[in-house]
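User: If you would, consider this record:
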Amino acid sequence: MFERIVIPDGRLPLFGPFPHAIRAGDFLFVTGQLSEDPESGAMELGPIGDQVRRVMDNLIIVLDQAGASLDQAVMARVFITDLRDFDTVNQVYASYFKEGQLPCRTTVGVVGLAGHGNVEIDLIVYCGETAKP
């Protein structure tokens, strides 16, 4: 049985017909997050570093709702529209993890993303016994 997790009160709008995350057994699959401001729902389209920070903060909101944390991430997929931003994305992304605790990762250059953002990140998280029931 799967548990679908949706952030209440529309704090993180969705760009499609899917939940923010699905828990399947001991794993949590987090839908790709964009640089949406959770207060206004508007996309933050400033410098790439700011967009990555907003994406990571949005991932934390979803993980918190599911009773999980970034420390439990085992896989991340990063989609960026300009591979010249790779170093900046890496620097900001890595700052959210404890030293030595980075999950596996794939980075893909894409032509475009929903909401016209420049970065989207999704996660697979191992929750084990620490997840909310």
User: Anything to note?
Assistant: The first strand starts at residue 2 and ends at 5. The beta strands are 2-5, 21-24, 27-33, 73-80, 104-109, 119-126. The domain at 2-130 is CATH 3.30.1330.40 (60s Ribosomal Protein L30; Chain: A;). DSSP finds two helices and six strands in the chain.
